[in-house]
Amino acid sequence: NSPYGLLIYTKSGYMSAQLGNLNRVKFENPDYRFGKPNEIIEAFKQYIAYTGKYEVNESKNFIVHKVKMSM
Question: Which of 3, 11, 34, 53 could link 29 by a cystine bridge, Cβ 3.0 to 4.6 Å?
């Protein structure tokens, strides 16, 4: 596995995260909407995305993600 992703925090308190596998098998058809069922299942199992608000707890040095939407 080759995990890859992007995590974004805004000053207004929102965040977004996307994580996936760079080496996953690509769909036979370049248009993902026409992926075969097995291709879709494998891609879904190797990807996560979510967004929402976040809070920083500076005294305990951690961040809490409050997920509003995910896949």
Answer: 34
